[in-house]
Amino acid sequence: MKELVLDIAKALVDNPEAVEVEETFNDGETILKLKVAPDDMGKVIGKQGRIAKAIRTVIKSASNRDHKKVTLEII
Question: Which of 22, 1, 19 is nearest to 11 (CA)?
Answer without folding.
Answer: 19
